Amino acid sequence: MRLAHICRHPIKSIGFEELASASLTTARALPFDREWAVVHDAAKFDALVAWAPKMNFLRGVAGPELMAIRAQMDEAARRVTLTHPTAGQITVAPDSDGEELLAWLRPLWPQDRPAPATVGHVPGQAMTDVPDGHIAILNLASNADLGRRMGKNLSIHRWRGNLWLDGLAAWAEWDLVGKRLRIGEAELLVQDRITRCKATTVNPDTGAPDADTLGALSAACGHEDFGTYGVVTRSGPVAIGDQIEVI
User: What mean pLDDT is reported for the chain?
Assistant: First the structure.
């Protein structure tokens, strides 16, 4: 096995980018993954001060056009450039340019949904779907196999994963649950499967639903799981092409 892709999503559900390398830290998410989240005006809190469930934020399952946003993060400046096929491009510092970001997002968000309200950030806490510092580990062969069954070429970015493995048999990632992986100088414990939602039915090039991924998973596997959650147990850098060892 080798590491084929490293992906992150600086603003939850709003843009994806690929990296050549990253530095993993024990019990933490991928650096700058879900660092920010856009809170809508029906959120169950007055201010974002700790991890909160995903239903409080803008998400691709409710606003499919968000899935077509691409991101490029300038870590030193804490600025993110977002690009969308129809909305064009914007560069913002989410910590200070929240109103500018919200104005750019409003035309992409359904008018019958709770409106974008604020950009939230909690230092040291990624706004991932689960509160602990997990990293999503996925298998290229499983994505390819599901695509063949559906007669489609499925982009990896439908799944919003972090680390993509190559050289593993299709669906063999289920056998990794409970085991440790060494990738580069880092080590991760694979803990659980990821159950998927309708956001994965959306084409990340167009922002339009075009593939019944959930139905295909149910037909092929008898469930709607795709990919696994892992937790970093040893800090270290990882890079595209790193060999992966089960330890």
Answer: 97
User: Tell me: the pLDDT tens digits for 124-162?
Assistant: 999 999 999 999 999 999 999 999 999 999 999 999 999
Residue with tokens 């600086």: 10
Q: Does residue 175 share a domain with residue 73?
A: no
Listed in sequence order, the DSSP H helices in 79-238 are 98-105, 140-150, 213-221
Domain end call among 86, 120, 154 = 120
Q: Which residues contact 63 (CB under 8 A, 6 or more apart)?
A: 13, 108, 109, 110, 113
Both 152 and 239 in one domain: the answer is yes
Secondary structure, 3-state, 213-241: HHHHHHHHHCCCEEEEEEEEEECEEEECC
Separation between Cα atoms, residue 222 and residue 15, nearest integer Å: 30
Residue 113 tokens read as 């949904």
User: Taking a C-beta distance cutoff of 8 angstroms, is the pair 48, 120 a contact?
Assistant: yes
Same domain flag for 16 and 50: no
Q: Which DSSP category does 140 fall into?
A: H
The number of folded domains in the chain is 2
In a domain, 125, yes or no: no
Q: What's the average model confidence in pLDDT over 71-86?
A: 98
